[in-house]
Design brief:
The complex is a heterodimer of chains A (about 110) and B (about 120).
Chain A lengths: L3 E2 L4 E5 L4 E7 L6 E7 L6 E7 L4 E4 L2 E6 L4 E6 L8 E8 L9 E2 L3 E6 L1
Parallel strand pairs in A: 2-11
Antiparallel strand pairs in A: 1-3, 3-8, 4-5, 4-9, 6-7, 7-8, 9-10, 9-11
Chain B lengths: L4 E3 L2 E4 L5 E6 L6 E7 L6 E7 L2 E5 L7 E4 L6 E5 L8 E8 L13 E2 L3 E5 L1
Parallel strand pairs in B: 2-11
Antiparallel strand pairs in B: 1-3, 3-8, 4-5, 4-9, 5-6, 7-8, 9-10, 9-11
Chain lengths: ~110, ~120
């Protein structure tokens, strides 16, 4: 059973526009959420995180929104740049974030069109 | 520091053979994690260490898998009697937890992984 779901395997966005990547989760014990970016032949790179006590966290061009009642989070990238083309993974933790194993979604392949 | 280092990058082995992978974490990090990623899936948690103590193991970690971190620095992951289903990317990650200064960021630092192919 997939506890963290990324229902869009791929997403194509024009350069300069906003990219919105979505993630749903089923485990109500999750209290920390993270987004990772992965290029081919490299390990995932941490992007941004959010605690369940917040509903928004912003870092430069990246903003993560959390809707606990809907068990939904999203990553907004604005403006999108060609270097943002990668696979994005949503991940969740049930114990304070980073302290134990993360549960990952299957990823969304973001393609930024010039 | 060059980040998390994993060796080898690629390993091809025959079914039934044993393989061992090595991970060197970021030197000041006290936690080390092993994940496995198969095609089209996200990374799946296998196990993690706090210093030299192995604190959690996933049910994915069968008896054929063993991980060690003998001196709280580098770690090894051994797979005995490999099966074709073991073919995957094995990822190592490290993090520093426990310090109030780093509470803002619980993101791991991943290595580039070891790609295992069992033929």
């Amino acid at each position: 059973d997939q506890q963290v779901k990324q229902n869009s395997p791929s997403l194509s966005v024009q350069e300069g526009r906003i990219s919105i990547l979505n993630c749903d989760y089923t485990n109500s014990m999750f209290d920390y959420f993270l987004w990772y970016k992965k290029y081919p032949a490299e390990g995932p790179t941490f992007l941004i995180s959010i605690s369940s006590i917040k509903d928004k966290n912003e870092d430069g061009r990246f903003t993560v929104f959390l809707n606990k009642s809907a068990k939904h989070l999203s990553l907004h990238i604005v403006p999108s740049q060609p270097g943002d083309s990668a696979v994005y993974f949503c991940a969740a933790s049930a114990r304070g974030g980073g302290a134990d194993g993360l549960t990952f979604g299957k990823g969304t392949h973001l393609i930024i069109q010039p | 520091d060059t980040g998390v280092s994993q060796n080898p990058r690629h390993k091809i082995t025959k079914r039934g053979q044993n393989v061992t992978f090595r991970c060197d974490p970021i030197s000041e990090h006290n936690r080390l994690y092993w994940y496995r990623q198969t095609l089209g899936q996200g990374p799946e948690f296998l196990t993690y260490f706090q210093n030299e103590a192995q604190l959690e193991k996933s049910r994915l970690l069968s008896d054929r898998f063993s991980a060690e971190r003998p001196k709280g620095s580098f770690s090894t992951l051994e797979i005995q009697r490999t099966e074709q289903g073991d073919s995957a990317m094995y990822l190592c990650a490290s993090s520093l937890v426990g310090s109030p200064q780093i509470r803002q960021n619980y993101g791991y630092t991943f290595g580039s992984g070891t790609r295992l192919t069992v033929v």
